[in-house]
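Q: what sequence does this backbone want?
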């Protein structure tokens, strides 16, 4: 696939609130945490927004981020440890580092799911990534970027 066709891939992935209608033909992909009546996704962001439940996963990932090479990431993680949560946009932005770490393992559930979704997009399918926080800053945008990265490699 040449560079001129790359925007076409990006148009195949939408980020939407979980209650928004999914266009006919789109594959709906829930990417949020477990909620009453809804199973959690492998992509559920373990970094909670302030005021939400602080879990062992939140503690572990925040401790991981507190040792990150980038000072800004370390500082955000240390502040989150004290506050027991992140600001909305901060949780979404820092999820990029969590997802990268998860995908370093060749057969992780996250990497396997990203590759499956990237194959769909590369084959011309369209996806709607659903989360509770969209259209606010949302980790689904990070997932979208990761799917696009893999899809571009598959389409090259």
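A:
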């Amino acid at each position: 696939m040449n560079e001129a066709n790359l925007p076409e891939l990006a148009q195949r992935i939408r980020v939407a609130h979980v209650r928004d209608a999914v266009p006919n033909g789109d594959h709906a992909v829930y990417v949020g945490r477990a909620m009453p009546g809804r199973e959690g996704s492998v992509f559920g962001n373990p970094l909670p927004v302030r005021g939400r439940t602080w879990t062992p996963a939140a503690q572990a990932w925040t401790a991981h981020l507190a040792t990150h090479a980038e000072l800004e990431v370390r500082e955000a993680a240390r502040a989150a440890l004290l506050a027991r949560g992140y600001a909305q946009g901060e949780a979404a932005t820092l999820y990029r580092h969590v997802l990268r770490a998860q995908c370093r393992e060749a057969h992780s559930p996250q990497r396997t799911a990203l590759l499956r979704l990237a194959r769909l997009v590369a084959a011309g399918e369209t996806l709607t990534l659903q989360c509770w926080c969209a259209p606010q800053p949302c980790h689904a945008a990070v997932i979208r970027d990761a799917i696009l990265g893999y899809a571009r490699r598959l389409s090259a």
